[in-house]
């Protein structure tokens, strides 16, 4: 569904048109973009630019800052890993936001995700599930990120390790993820991809052809 | 507009009985100079006005770039130029000329007066910029004014600089008197306001159709077809272009790296164009773009951006050797970029141009890069603090904030975000140094290396190592720009020199081996001998 924002002159712009103009700083539109953030959480969609625009409006108008919306924006940005959206959002936070305990917890979670300590992440998430239930598809988005990291790291990996990295999935669900990623089960191992084709030692040698020097030499004569 | 009277005449000061008050000193200075405005200064002002009114570009540029700084050095080294009350009558209160003169007048105060400008001067300078932009923007027909591009660049750049400087001044509550605080809170909450700055820059971009012009140009068309009435004038076109670059800077100062790169979308940063003839603008663009990339963990892009501009600077170095206000800024930014490049290369080792590498072999860089590789966080911090932009908070401290110094808050926050990133990566250089020695290495063996105490690594350590290896792969695979004019777009690539994959419990390592390069060496020698040869031929023995 495309959202429209009413302008003072009676015209309507789409959110992305509005964000491309000076109107992005107009506080009158804050509510509209905040609703849009909630919609993203509900409907598992994502719009980084709009979310950053909300944080920027908070930065310019600290009295309008809404912690609940901030949580949503930060958690949503984690669903877009391996992109660095979380860092972009973090750079815009105000001191009061940085002091909030829930935000600190989210930053901590981002930290362990960025360090790829996935088992610790899943343990930690279990302690506070209500925080994540507001983001539809949160866990699967994180699993997608885990699969991305596994996919670039392994040629073959133990199935049991894979299961732990993905948050202790049962065999049926694990097999679905393996299938979806295009991997193959081989006994207790999982074949991910043949990496030796992509990851090869590179030799950089300097090649100087006579032709490239011809001009230089001619000018020296 | 504020005049001196509103801030109180002599009575005002008598009440408080200040002696040695800076305002009074200024008053005295002014009296001193009004009696004796040096003759050559007077002539300069008259000639300058004539040149501007007649639009003699060569003369304007010469007076702007040479005569004004010379006279500043000679007569006004640590003092202000004559103010408007003295200059006005001299030039029949020529409105446009007075705005331009005051732009230079306040810029000079910002640059040269020890202790910086007074609040009143900051305010007046702001209103003078407003006058200038109003003149340009609210006219129904394009204003027929021609100024050298260098002036236009420095004007817009200075506008952003004074905003940044004011934001920092505003955040320092420790050195303000009660009166100054009241003035700031009550009368001047809109002065140097962020929205105002953004508004001006956006308006200049819009009126000049610069985005459309750049897009058409990229596609090989003629920009004049979309320039419109205003945008076809050089004044508007260049102001539009410089505003894009200034928006990059403003967003960077606020920590909004996404917008920073996004505003530049119509500009192809890596291409030379008709707009790239102002070195300071080129260099500043690359500095902020590279910095934003670094913060977004796009190290390959940051390294490419820095190397390419640093090479350009190396090749045109002789232009910046003379000491001038312009070159000081360029040299500072060059230094900062070498620092940032050093950080990026520690986090993301990769091959760069030999002549840039040569500079980084210098002791200061070399030692600190070694420290950073060994996980010395203070080395990262000090490099970052030296090289980062002067971050600002868009809002002043709240009215009820304790009287403290908040200037560093914005920088501390960005530093924290950056250091969090560094911390996440702190074990990677150690792992890299071990991997470099092998082509294959069992997980257990590497785990034992990492934990130097044990001979046999236990499963817990291997699991721990596994986390680091996953992290290594994740952090070294980043978005890299490949094509198109949007600097935000790109593809995931592993551009670092060392890569690996894990096959069950065996690590397979791929390194980049660079054979010794001799071409460059020979070219240098050839040129040297050629030079020598030519000199020998030219010797005339009589």
Give a structural overview.
The complex is a heterodimer of chains A (221) and B (542). With 221 residues, chain A is mainly α. Chain A folds into 2 domains: 1-138, Alpha Horseshoe (Serine Threonine Protein Phosphatase 5, Tetratricopeptide repeat); 154-221, Arc Repressor Mutant, subunit A, CATH 1.10.10.10. Helix content of chain A is 57%, strand content 9%. Chain A has helices spanning 15-19, 30-43, 48-60, 67-78, 85-90, 95-99, 101-114, 118-126, 129-133, 138-153, 159-165, 171-180, 210-220; strands at 4-6, 12-14, 154-158, 184-186, 189-191, 202-204. Chain A has a 3-stranded antiparallel sheet with strand order 3-5-4. A two-stranded antiparallel sheet of chain A has the order 1-2. In chain A, helix 2 packs antiparallel against helix 3 (48-60), helix 2 crosses helix 4 and helix 4 (67-78) runs parallel beside helix 7. Chain A is flat. Chain B is mostly helical and 542 residues long. Chain B folds into 2 domains: 117-424, no CATH class; 427-511, no CATH class. Chain B is built from 25 helices and 6 strands. In chain B, helix 19 packs across helix 20. At the A-B interface, helix 3, helix 5, helix 7, helix 10 and strand 3 of A face helix 10, helix 14, helix 21, helix 24 and strand 4 of B. Strand 3 (154-158) of chain A pairs parallel with strand 4 of chain B, so a sheet runs across the interface.
Averaged pLDDT of chain A: 87
Q: Which class do the helix and strand fractions of chain B yield?
A: mainly alpha
Number of individual domains of chain A: 2
Number of helices of chain B: 25
Distance between the termini of chain A: 72 Å
Strand order of the largest sheet of chain A: 3-5-4
């Amino acid at each position: 569904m495309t959202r429209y924002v009413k302008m003072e002159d009676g015209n309507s712009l789409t959110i992305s048109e509005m964000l491309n103009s000076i109107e992005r700083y107009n506080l009158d539109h804050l509510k509209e973009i905040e609703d849009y953030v909630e919609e993203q959480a509900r409907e598992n969609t994502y719009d980084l630019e709009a979310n950053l625009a909300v944080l920027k409006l908070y930065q310019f108008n600290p009295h309008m800052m809404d912690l609940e919306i901030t949580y949503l924006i930060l958690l949503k940005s984690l669903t877009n890993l391996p992109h660095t959206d979380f860092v972009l959002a973090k750079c815009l936070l105000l001191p009061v936001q940085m002091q909030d305990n829930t935000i600190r917890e989210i930053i901590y979670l981002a930290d362990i995700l960025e360090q790829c300590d996935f088992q610790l992440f899943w343990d930690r998430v279990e302690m506070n599930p209500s925080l994540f239930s507001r983001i539809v598809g949160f866990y699967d988005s994180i699993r997608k990120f885990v699969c991305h990291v596994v996919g670039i790291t392994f040629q073959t990996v133990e199935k049991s390790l894979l299961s732990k990295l993905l948050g202790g999935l049962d065999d049926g669900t694990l097999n679905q993820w393996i299938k979806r990623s295009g991997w193959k089960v081989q006994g207790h191992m999982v074949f991910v991809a043949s990496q030796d084709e992509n990851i090869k030692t590179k030799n950089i040698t300097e090649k100087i052809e006579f032709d490239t020097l011809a001009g230089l030499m001619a000018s020296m004569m | 507009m504020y005049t001196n009277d509103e801030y109180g005449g002599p009575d005002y000061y008598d009440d408080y009985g200040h002696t040695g008050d800076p305002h009074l000193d200024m008053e005295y200075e002014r009296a001193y100079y009004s009696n004796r405005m040096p003759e050559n200064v007077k002539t300069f002002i008259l000639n300058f006005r004539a040149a501007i009114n007649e639009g003699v570009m060569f003369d304007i540029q010469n007076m702007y770039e040479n005569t004004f700084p010379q006279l500043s050095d000679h007569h006004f080294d640590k003092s202000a130029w004559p103010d408007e009350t003295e200059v006005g009558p001299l030039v029949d209160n020529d409105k446009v000329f007075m705005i331009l003169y005051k732009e230079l007048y306040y810029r000079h105060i910002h640059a040269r007066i020890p202790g910086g400008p007074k609040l009143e001067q900051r305010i007046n300078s702001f209103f003078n910029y407003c006058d200038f932009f109003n003149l340009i923007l609210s006219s129904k027909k394009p204003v027929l004014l021609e100024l050298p591009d260098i002036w236009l660049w420095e004007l817009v750049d200075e506008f952003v600089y004074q905003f940044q400087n004011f934001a920092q001044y505003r955040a320092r509550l420790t050195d303000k008197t009660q009166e100054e605080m009241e003035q700031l809170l009550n009368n001047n909450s809109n002065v140097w306001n962020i929205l105002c700055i953004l508004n001006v820059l956006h308006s200049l971009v819009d009126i000049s159709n610069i985005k459309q012009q750049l897009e058409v140009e990229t596609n090989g068309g003629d920009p004049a077809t979309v320039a419109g009435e205003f945008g076809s004038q050089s004044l508007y076109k260049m102001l539009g272009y410089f505003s894009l670059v200034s928006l990059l800077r403003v967003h960077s100062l606020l920590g909004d790296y996404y917008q920073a790169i996004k505003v530049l979308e119509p500009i192809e940063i890596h291409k030379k164009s008709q707009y790239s003839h102002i070195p300071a603008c080129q260099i500043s663009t690359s500095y902020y773009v590279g910095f934003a990339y670094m913060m977004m963990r796009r190290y390959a892009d940051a390294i490419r951006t820095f190397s390419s501009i640093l090479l350009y600077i190396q090749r045109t170095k002789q232009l910046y050797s003379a000491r001038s206000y312009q070159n000081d800024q360029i040299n500072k930014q060059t230094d900062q970029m070498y620092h940032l490049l050093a950080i990026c290369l520690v986090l993301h080792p990769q091959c760069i141009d030999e002549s840039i590498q040569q500079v980084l072999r210098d002791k200061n860089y070399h030692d600190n890069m070694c420290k950073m590789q060994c996980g010395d966080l203070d080395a990262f911090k000090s490099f970052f603090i030296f090289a980062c932009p002067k971050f600002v908070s868009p809002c002043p401290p709240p009215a009820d904030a304790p009287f403290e110094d908040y200037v560093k808050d914005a920088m501390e926050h960005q530093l924290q975000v950056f250091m969090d990133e560094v911390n996440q990566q702190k074990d990677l250089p150690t792992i890299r140094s071990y991997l470099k020695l092998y082509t294959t290495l069992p997980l257990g063996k590497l785990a034992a290396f990492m934990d130097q105490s044990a001979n046999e690594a236990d499963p817990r350590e291997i699991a721990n190592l596994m986390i680091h290896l996953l992290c290594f792969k994740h952090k070294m695979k980043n978005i890299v720009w490949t094509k198109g004019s949007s600097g935000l777009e790109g593809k995931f690539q592993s551009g670092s020199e060392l890569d690996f994959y894990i096959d069950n419990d065996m690590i397979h390592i791929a390194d980049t081996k660079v054979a010794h390069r001799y071409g460059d060496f020979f070219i240098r020698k050839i040129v040297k001998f050629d030079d020598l040869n030519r000199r020998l031929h030219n010797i005339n023995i009589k």
